[in-house]
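Quick review question:
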């Protein structure tokens, strides 16, 4: 089981549950009217709405449980909006730091809102890890830096940054100790 490092934005996802709830309520209404009038078009519409609502619920539930960044078996897992996370060896990850970038959502004035980001710096010597394609709304990966947008993750605070860097440093120490032990 992966160790979650950065959670998804649960507030935004919770709002997303309104649409499937409305679809399921409409489905119940259609099914009730279809039963009352013995009408197949109403029943068919109700069934379609039930399926659509259930699919949306399943997708939202999966997104709610999927961390943005996690750790498992020597790899940092970056969930950048793809079906499977990108797996980066923890030895390649140097540090996490706080940043700011466009959130890809409009602010109250219609301009792109600025959001906090978590920037993951990868080792310069690890040229194989300098670029990957991710969904731009979630993250950007270029020139050895992975930028996780704060729009779709838990609030990015100095405490989160301290926790991430502390855990990363502990893992680096553990791995160095294991390597030293293996060589002796």
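Suggested answer, residue by residue:
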């Amino acid at each position: 089981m992966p160790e979650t490092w950065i959670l998804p934005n649960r507030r935004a996802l919770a709002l997303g549950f309104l649409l499937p709830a409305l679809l399921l309520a409409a489905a119940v209404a259609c099914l009730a009217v279809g039963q009352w009038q013995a009408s197949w078009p109403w029943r068919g519409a109700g069934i379609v709405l039930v399926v659509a609502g259930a699919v949306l619920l399943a997708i939202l539930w999966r997104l709610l449980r999927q961390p943005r960044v996690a750790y498992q078996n020597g790899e940092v897992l970056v969930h950048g909006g793809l079906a499977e996370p990108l797996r980066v060896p923890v030895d390649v990850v140097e540090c996490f730091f706080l940043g700011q970038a466009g959130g890809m959502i409009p602010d109250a004035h219609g301009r792109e809102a600025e959001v906090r980001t978590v920037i993951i710096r990868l080792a310069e010597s690890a040229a194989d890890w300098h670029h990957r394609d991710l969904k731009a709304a979630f993250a950007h990966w270029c020139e050895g830096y992975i930028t996780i947008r704060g729009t779709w993750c838990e609030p990015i605070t100095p405490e989160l940054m301290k926790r991430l860097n502390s855990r990363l440093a502990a893992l680096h120490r553990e791995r160095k100790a294991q390597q030293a032990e293996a060589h002796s």
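Why it works: The chain has two domains: 3-65, 69-183. The helical segments are 10-16, 18-37, 40-65, 158-183.
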